[in-house]
Task: structure prediction
Amino acid sequence: MTVRRVLLVAENDDLLDGIAAWLATSPELEVAGRAHSGAEAIDRAVRLQADLVIVDATLQDMSGYQATRALKSLRPAPRVLIMTFLDTRFAKLAALAADADGLVATPEIPQRLLPKIAELFAPAGGLVGTTQDGA
Result:
């Protein structure tokens, strides 16, 4: 079983705690670290060798979209999921332009996060034990 190292990036610790709790339900995911800014995310992604970075679209030092562009320029580049409060056409276009691997609306995290992550890693064998309801 391949364990994927995940870096969580958001300014809100309650949001990070909630996401970490959801990820803990999958034995194939390990929260390797947390960051509260885009610059910190880039540094930690390199140091922690993150396979996946889940980044909030709104950060104070740079947007999550800007952070994503920087993260995707790393070699090897981690997969990046952007969290945004609303899953709008603008957010989808901005995520696409930033080369993000996906977008998840924060209200949908309980239902969509684990299935979305499974989709991201499916070509490499996927994550087992996830269902459409996120359990």
Observations:
- The CA atoms of residues 69 and 98 lie 5 Å apart.
